[in-house]
Amino acid sequence: MKKIRVLAIACMLVVAGAFLLTNENLFKADVTEDTVIENGVYIGGIDVSGMNTEEATEAVNQYVEEIKTKSISLVGPKGSISVSLEKMGLSAKTGEAVSEAVAVGKSGNLIKRFKELKDLEAQHHVVDMGLAIDKQETAEILHNRSSRIDIKAIDNGLKIEDGEFVYVPGQDGNEVDIPTAVNELNNYIGTEWELAAVEDAKFTLTSVVSHPRGSEEELSVVRDLMGTFTTNYKSSGAGRAKNVENGASKIHGTILYPGDELSVYELVNPFTQENGYELAGSYLNGETVESFGGGICQVSTTLYNAALNAELEITQRFNHSMIVTYVDPAADAAIAGTYKDLRFKNQYDFPVYIEAAWKNRNITFNIYGKETRPANRKVEYVSEVLSENDPPTEYTISYTDPAGTFLQTRSKHVGYVAQLWKVVTVDGVEKERTKVNKSTYQASARKVTIGVAGANDYQIMAINNAIASGDDAAVQATVTSMGAPVVAPVAPTPEATPTPEATPTPEAPSESGESTGGETPAN
What we know:
The chain is an alpha+beta fold. The chain is built from 14 helices and 25 strands. A four-stranded antiparallel beta sheet has the order 11-19-18-12. It has a three-stranded mixed beta sheet with strand order 2-1-5, with helices on one face.
């Protein structure tokens, strides 16, 4: 009987002990928003001892906002970039961290709580703040700045020697493995960096070897001329001519592999003297001004038409603000800062090679690939003018310039609305007609200043009557009759004196963007 009683007591003790160890709710402290965090509790590097929930939350949020201004140097194979934590979309799991900090020594069974409180007497209890970066934003930063951190592979290529294509071997590169690097960076910030908040921290990004594209076999199919186009710049000054040739040289030799997209702007900028450009005419707010790179749009226009003839996929194209005369209306392609670009894609399953050539003030682009189109199928592009706006001359009377002075300050540009059609024929019979684009070109009136200083009232009245008539010849004759020599126009644009071969109208690129009410560059 005695043994049975002892055994029963032992069993009761075991059950009670197990109950105490496993029941989380028994003797659980009452935790509220006003509950004070135990001494020795940290959230990351912040001492939150004695704070309630609201105070701890404010402290953590303030800390996160402060450290967002800190930057980490991200080191790649080529070089490094400094990126702030704010740019990487830093965030913290503040609510979870504060709840965990408040619960230290106040949750769980009696033994667990007792142990946590005893541990606090010996050392700090650190709660993970849950710092993390936005992986998508960080990946985009690494991608957008890859030129500064990656050693890019040099693709296998081609060159033309004595009219024949010659294979040019490329070179391996070393590029950041973005998915892996972002995950590792996120782990680093949430562990090592979170506790130390290191100033000027450096993190080495994981990289992998990259290989050149285009085998000799793949490039061997590039032999056929798929599209070509030529324009002339014989009336251009030396600066504009140099810009045309310099821009063409930066595109020459480009290979587009299947799926690649070409950006003319990316290939030819910056428009600076250091990059080989000179001052030449450009369009700005209906005026012709001098800017570095004037003429580059004749390069993009010529390439645009070659790409159309090769039937490459045009993904972006803009017309000029005012008409140019080296191609038909709607067949031009302007380059202006970063907001007007010519882009096209190689949608074929083989590479294409772009050749630029210039001689005797003619520029030609040839696009080579593998001709798969039927020989009896022909493609032609036809320009159609829908409307025309020929603005009258704007005359200004100057009472300070000598009577009879006739000064042209701006030449005339006729405005047009035009569209370009792609016409496909098979054995000479039209099978398809597709609208390629619709383009609007603004008109710009010719401006002339007429001097009347020293003229009598009759002469001034005669001038005003001639101007009111809208007859430019009558105005000219009236001014000439005043007896003073006619002053030659100041800096006329090429359109004012066209040649039978069509004089190029310059629109030059610039990186200054768009100025008041107009297109800063475009040529």
